[in-house]
Design brief:
104 residues, alpha+beta, 4-stranded antiparallel beta sheet, 3 helices, 4 strands, 34% helix, globular
């Protein structure tokens, strides 16, 4: 299992209870895909660099997760279908041991 960072932007009209529900849904998606959530940090409302769906602000949420590549594909597919999530980004943070051994 590899370590990933998942950052997503939730629509600003979602209230605090709705944001907690979205975070819970995303956590459930990660766990249903065979992963585990290690850290969840809501970063709050921030201004976007450019409008997304005519929206200029969004509520950022940061998560540290561990899962395999097939699970990441499932999370990617599921997040595309979530209406309150404007954008998301999944980034692998651990180094592949084979690559570090090949390139000293």
């Amino acid at each position: 299992m590899r370590q990933y960072e998942l950052t997503y932007i939730v629509h600003p009209r979602v209230d605090s209870e709705g944001l907690a529900a979205v975070i819970q849904e995303v956590t459930h998606i990660v766990e249903a895909s065979g992963g585990t959530v290690h850290k969840v940090e809501p970063w709050g409302l921030r201004r976007l660099a450019y409008p997304i769906r005519k929206v200029r602000e969004g509520q950022y949420v940061f998560m540290e997760i561990r899962m395999d590549a097939r699970g990441v594909a499932e999370v990617d597919r599921a997040l595309k279908l979530k209406e309150p999530i404007l954008r998301y980004l999944i980034v692998r943070t651990d180094e592949d041991e084979d690559e570090s051994e090949r390139n000293p």
